[in-house]
Amino acid sequence: MPKLREILGHPFWQAVALLVAAYLLFKWGIAVLPPLVGFPSAPVPQSVVLQYMLTALVGILIYVSYNEARWRRFKEPINATLVDANKRWLRATLLVLVPALVGFVAYDQSRPKVSAPLQLRSIHPAPPGQITVRGRTIRLAGLENPLRSRGTIEEHSREGRRVYYQNCLPCHGDLLDGKGHFAHGFSPTPLAFDDAGTIAQLTESFVFWRIAKGGPGLPREGAPWNSAMPAWEDFLTEDEIWSVIIFLYEQSGWEPRRWEVEERAEGAGHE
Amino acid sequence: MSRVVGWKEGTMETGLIALVMVLAIIPSFHLSAQDIERGKAVYEKWCTGCHGDTGAGDGDAAAYMLPRPRDFRRAVYQIRTTASGELPTDDDIRHVVDQGMPGTAMTGWKSRLTSGDRDAVIAYIKSFSRFFDGAPPQSVDFPSAPRISDDGIAEGARIYGELECFKCHGDRGRGDGTSAPTMSDDWDFPIRPTDLTRPWTFNGGAEVEDIYRAIRTGLDGTPMPSFSDVIDAEIITDEQLWRVAQYVHSLAPGRPRVREVIRAGRTARVPDDPTDSAWVEAEAFYVPLVGQIIVSPRWFTPAVDGIWVRALHDGERLALHIAWSDPSASPDPLWQEWIELLATTVTDADGALEPVQGPDRFTIQFPARLSDGMARPYFLGGDRRRPAYTWRWRSSPDQLEVGTSTGLGQFVAGAGAASDVAHQAVFADGQWQLQVTRTLIPRDTSAAPTFAEGVAIPIAFRAADGSSGETHVRGSVSAWYAIYLDAPISATVFVMPVVATLVTAGFGLLVVWRAQRREGTRRFLPEATCDIFSSSRCSDSWHAAAAKLAHRPATRMLVPLSSRSAAPRSPA
Amino acid sequence: MTFDGTPPANPAIDMTEEPECVAKYADGPVDPVVVVNDGMLANVFIRVTAGLPAGPYPIPSQPATIDQNGCLYTPRVLGVMVGQPFEITNSDPLLHNIKAVPSESRGFNISQPRAMTTTRTFKTPEVMVPLECNVHGWMNAYVGVTDHPYFATSAEDGSFAITGLPAGTYTIEAWHETLGKRMMEAEVVEGGTVSVTFVYGSTT
């Protein structure tokens, strides 16, 4: 395979290969690869992909132009395409295709687009210092689940299961994946508790606040007008809310974040 | 004729191999006590919430569901490859456990439970009924399907009529047959005939094979009978039964894609009534609706779970066309029995359902102010800070109110002249079609929003079936969607691409020309001034031009742009 | 089988959706829940519940039959032995489904879109197995499934006969769909006939 080796050794083709590889990595690799080894990931937005690509392009250009010989070799195929007699068809094709492509992009950019109005969703909005639930004022900072210091976890979890199945199931689902039989009707879609990024990252007091106050209790940046999460203080007692929190952690297998962990983390100056 | 047995995805071969392996390993074919223990653990963690500790279908959530969760003690199963009244095979149960039951609260468990866990839980579920102690049930042999054709579908439609499927499912398949109001299942819970135009809610799946299986073996526990005996009695052939399945399959597309933006196409003149043929041409947008389970009294068993929205505008008026399945124009005395049964079945936490029929209702809302940026009214009818501009229609008396709402049921008529808004509603074949029309610019622009072209305007919907006791609060709701009125396309859309193409092409030619000139100047000057496509076919004129340029490149480069016209006259 | 007092009025059926069936009733269709003729009660299922010698008993090959005619079941109440063929006929030119909802054995739900006959059997004794048609919500029938041949249904004139019982003392039970159960003892002598009268009434 001398031909292939020749191509791989050529700076122009190296640059092309690097660009393609970078694009694949940014576009799909980042989303697909980490989960294979057990890390969560998400797709990269198109605008960020473009930024990354620009950076990659600059890097590649620096590489190919770093020494004079390589730069000359890099330019050879480009120059050949522009000049050589035996490349005239390629040249003609490019001269037709590239303008056509630019024309299409221009059309695509200028034609009227139908897109939904922009919506934001803050995943973990900052909680208030204290809340008033059913007439009682509760300070959230440092608040622990009071049920953990009385009765048994089994008993609270059982009660929490009842509360969950009678109230939360239609949206958050049997699998705690936020895909209950009503979930598709709401936007934003209900939270998935099996996800590593929801209750696994939160203290029980935060979860208590979100359940008790629901969508209407969200700060403005949380788009409270869209959330279908009810203010559960209208339906559930404090103990019922605390018991369903225990059920959520028992059923999902996550551990709530503890205040002392939080404080230590803050004290150590990271997170 | 080849035969298809059992489930398509579970191949016979693997099943047989597994069976042989199991037989080779354990002497007894019965499941071990260990498996039952494992199944019990899985069941108690994941299934009791709906199906109950004893498998009686009476879990904590049962009273909030319709259809109710399965009562395993009777071993009556809807989705089977076995004859009517027979037990399901393990594969039949496995199919439902894996895939769930569309149109119900039963989710699929394939992603959550391991294959071993699912086998174990199936064994445990079977242990709730003594009926499974006997010989294992046998699947019915289904002959393979004839090829789908237009003639075949027409034949299916004919057989659909001949078998009187319409008695329950209605003439157009919307579940509005004459016997629909009287139906209950084996547990005396109310049940609706399947709306055949909504295949994504078919409990056993929406493929032709799924439909055929449901007709062939029936859905035990429900009023849906098995049609096997009809084939045995030679009233119809098996092929004709397949034709019915293919016909039903042809009634509607698969699960519709939900799009956030509803486009109102531009038309010369908006239609006047909802049956106008222009609406058939207009693009239809599916909007799912779900029970209002956010404010009291909540409603967990909504009658309307989706609507089709079409929209057109003519630059003057916007017309919305909403269509949804509803087996009755409420109130309807024939449906009194239904609501009474419903009232004893659905015992919600937030108060009993009064067995009193109201009118059918439909509500459309927009933000009262469109200038609030990203902020919108609360999606459930707005709130005090941000009210919703609302159109409320009711079927009896047929009336549309225009007003402002500050929450569910918090409605004040007004919001400009109601005469701005015209409506017409038609009920036929188990379907409401409602058209609402308004001028883009309201008479009173301070009281009602102006519908501008070319922007996405938030819109939300709510529906209620009076025969199911639904009201403004107990009904079904949608999230915010958006409606976009197509604007006339401006000339720039067409000019821009042409300009961009020409500029790029010109630039490309320039680059090539310069490259060739440079190359020619440096290396092969005598013969190298060539046309841009072929450096071998050098034209004389280019040759000459290149030669000339080669002799005086510097002067040319130095001539200022403004005096270029004068250049030829300078010494030559 | 007697009925004292005034029998309750049977409800009329709105059968307008099936003109072919309505045509079969000169005075309009009525749901025959309580059928009393001259003080005699029909459609009571009577069977021996105790005192019988141990089985098994021969299973008749003659089928028990039920007909759907005029959008009602005929008979409305009948008995069938476990394993005995149970023949279901549709004499109406329209769709019925016949659904048996037993709790002791497996049920069935069969479509009969026009005149046809279907045969089924029951595997476990059960008194009574309800039959229903979901196309016509008013159609109800009851099948008494027994593991012996000593049962009967009271006729239009209230009479019934259980024959071939060996000599002995028996407990006999009567069942009516709305009026409930009655129990009696009877002593049968070899070759003799014993008369038993169950009394139902509007006052009981």
Explained architecture:
The complex is a heterotrimer of chains A (271), B (572) and C (204). Chain A is mostly helical and 271 residues long. Chain A folds into two domains: 2-110, no CATH class; 130-268, Cytochrome Bc1 Complex, Chain D, domain 2 (Orthogonal Bundle). Helices cover 55% and strands 3% of the residues of chain A. A two-stranded antiparallel sheet of chain A has the order 1-2. In chain A, a hairpin with a 2-residue loop joins strand 1 (130-133) and strand 2 (136-139). In chain A, helix 2 packs antiparallel against helix 3 (46-65). In chain B, the strands form two sheets. In chain B, strands 3, 4, 5, 6, 7, 8, 9, 10, 11, 12, 13, 14, 15 and 16 form a 14-stranded mixed β-sheet that branches. A two-stranded antiparallel sheet of chain B has the order 1-2. Chain B is globular, with a radius of gyration of 34 Å. Chain B is an alpha+beta fold and 572 residues long. Chain B is built from 16 helices and 16 strands. Chain B has helices at residues 12-25, 33-46, 48-51, 90-99, 115-126, 150-162, 166-169, 208-217, 228-232, 238-250, 277-281, 336-345, 492-522, 525-528, 540-551, 553-558; strands spanning 3-4, 142-143, 261-266, 285-288, 290-291, 306-313, 317-325, 361-367, 388-395, 398-405, 411-413, 421-428, 431-439, 456-464, 476-477, 481-485. Chain B starts with a strand and ends in a 14-residue tail after the last helix. With 204 residues, chain C is an all-beta fold. Chain C has a single domain (2-201), classed as Immunoglobulin-like. A five-stranded mixed β-sheet of chain C has the order 7-13-12-9-10, with no helix packed on it. A four-stranded antiparallel β-sheet of chain C has the order 14-4-15-16, with no helix packed on it. In chain C, strands 6-5-8-11 form a four-stranded mixed β-sheet, with no helix packed on it. The longest helix of chain C is centred in the first third of the chain and has 4 residues, at 19-22. Chain C is globular. The mean pLDDT of chain C is 93. Chains A and B meet through helix 4, helix 5 and helix 6 of A and helix 3, strand 5, strand 15 and helix 13 of B.
Terminal CA distance of chain B: 95 Å
Q: Give the uncertain stretches of chain A in residue-range form.
A: 267-271
Give a quick account of the main beta sheet of chain A: strands, pairing sense, barrel closure.
2 strands, antiparallel
Give the structural class of chain A. mainly alpha
* Principal-axis shape of chain B: globular
- Strand fraction of chain B equals 15-25%
Mean pLDDT of chain A: 88
CATH topology of the largest domain in chain B: Immunoglobulin-like
Q: Which strand order spans the largest sheet of chain A, edge to edge or round the barrel?
A: 1-2
**Helices and strands of chain A, in N-to-C order?**
HHHHHEEHHHH
Largest interface: A-B, 64 and 76 residues
The total of beta strands of chain A comes to: 2
Name the beta content range of chain A.
under 5%
Q: Please give the oligomerization state of what you see.
A: heterotrimer
CATH architecture of the largest domain in chain A: Orthogonal Bundle
Low-pLDDT segments, ≥5 res of chain B: 10-29, 522-531, 535-542, 552-572
Q: Compute the number of structural domains of chain B.
A: 4
**Helix coverage percent of residues of chain A?**
40-55%
What would you report as the Rg of chain B, rounded to the nearest angstrom? 34 Å
Do you know the CATH architecture of the largest domain in chain B? Answer: Sandwich
